[in-house]
Amino acid sequence: MSRLRPLGIFLLLLIALTVLPGANETDIPPSSLHLIQVITGEIRPKSIIYAGNGHFFAQNMMYRHTVTVYDRQYRQIGEISDEIRLSDFHRSGFSGLHRGAPVEATAGPDGSVWITNYQMYGQGFEHPGSDNCQSGTATYDHSYVYKVNPLSFQIENIIEVGAVPKYIAATPDGQYLLVSNWCSGDLSVIGVTQEAEIRRIPLGAYPRGIAIDAASRYAYVTVMGDSRIAVIKLSDFSVTWLEGIGRTPRHICLDPSERFLYCTLSREGTVIKIDLVSGKIVKSAYIGREARSMCLSPDGTHLYAVAYEDNRLVKLATADLTKVAVEPTRQQPIGITCDPETGAVWVACYSGSIMVFEDTRPTLAYAPVPVAPAPETQSLRYVPGNLIPNPGPVFYERQAQPTSRSADTPALISRKYYIVIGSYARLENARIIYNKLKAKGLEPEIISGENNWRVSLSRHTSYEEAAEALTKAKQQYNTECWILTR
């Protein structure tokens, strides 16, 4: 009997491998993702962001003490050292040089880049936090956020925050920066005008990811030591919770309609889709061990996520979280950003490289130009005039939107829903598609954004009606339409 045991163990392992989530991926179609560049050098990128002006900032965490900056031709155009003199920024009681440890970054509406530092090195900092700290205690050193000029790449100011600041996000209205402090267990609120911390919001063990709605009314913050996501009303900083999310919620993205929130559950290796009206998880997908960061495609129809321990980039359809593509990466993919103008996906691999993928998925036969969705901070008002010759599409300009939303229910109210078939950087391209649709007897519209023009197939007064129309449009036009909420 003992001689049969190894065979039995082997069979059990074979069975287990065949039923593991995500193990059978033979049904995934040929990948539309193609590796077009690998950037190497003296780097250890923990994260990467698109900061505007064709520039990408890669934060090389404490092992390199630098932030490296690249352009769309993959050339390194700058390097920012985290070395500073605190006395140069009017911080008394410190002497000598200090170093930081870049973790994450964000670009504000004015173009300024803000970078969090995991910890500080130098005189006066003897009690650094760590990933294994006792979150919520006051025994750890505070740290700083650096404000960086996006053109000169010089550090212009430093702002004190909590212990081990990780993620940082700017409100679209330019009023606040939000910083999740891992070891102090709270959220720092930085007033952009004051360039100083103006409030701390306790959240519990290990806050991490942050997403903010386009109207700057609500912020969503993951708490990795919990199974909840905090919902913070930014008008009074009150906190409610999305319950029962799952283990170790890490990174979150808010879709363009603001109806759904996407979240990685790091330890579970999954991406989940949360309906913000019901507060329920409506979809889930296994992407690999240690699901980390994500970014949305410019049109919001797809989600790109990385699995840190399985060394893979996964592309998901946001509608139902089905896997559209799976691509291998170099070791330890951890950060990711999407270029809003080209659609390229930049992946930061902690092992020492940045990989750039091109997504060649055709959306329509006439190949619309992928561009960034405009911030949905405003409603629409029709402007008659002669901007577009007859027969021409309807043209809209922006008007301030009232901010009447319940503190406890960040649901969609009094909005219109548009079935968008394409986004275009040039109005002329949008007109071509508009005229084609008009010739087919449809009632399309062109909706202006800050940097693009969207062509809508139809307008609806309820999300349910729009969802039904979206399904029909995808079947009829064989393309990835999506819902724009205004």
Short description:
The protein has 486 residues and is mostly beta strands. It has helices at 5-19, 427-439, 463-477; strands spanning 33-39, 45-50, 56-60, 66-70, 76-81, 102-107, 113-117, 144-148, 155-160, 165-170, 176-181, 186-191, 196-202, 207-212, 218-223, 229-233, 238-242, 249-254, 260-265, 270-275, 280-286, 291-296, 302-307, 312-317, 323-328, 333-338, 345-349, 353-359, 378-382, 396-400, 417-424, 445-448, 453-460, 482-485.
Indicate the topology.
Blueprint: H1 5-19, E1 33-39, E2 45-50, E3 56-60, E4 66-70, E5 76-81, E6 102-107, E7 113-117, E8 144-148, E9 155-160, E10 165-170, E11 176-181, E12 186-191, E13 196-202, E14 207-212, E15 218-223, E16 229-233, E17 238-242, E18 249-254, E19 260-265, E20 270-275, E21 280-286, E22 291-296, E23 302-307, E24 312-317, E25 323-328, E26 333-338, E27 345-349, E28 353-359, E29 378-382, E30 396-400, E31 417-424, H2 427-439, E32 445-448, E33 453-460, H3 463-477, E34 482-485
Antiparallel strand pairs: 1-28, 2-3, 3-4, 4-5, 6-7, 7-8, 8-9, 10-11, 11-12, 12-13, 14-15, 15-16, 16-17, 18-19, 19-20, 20-21, 22-23, 23-24, 24-25, 26-27, 27-28, 29-30, 31-33, 31-34, 32-33
Structure description:
There is one protein chain. The chain is mainly β and 486 residues long. The strands form nine sheets. Strands 1-28-27-26 form a four-stranded antiparallel β-sheet, with no helix packed on it. A four-stranded antiparallel β-sheet has the order 2-3-4-5, with no helix packed on it. The protein is built from three helices and 34 strands. Helices cover 9% and strands 41% of the residues. The protein is globular.
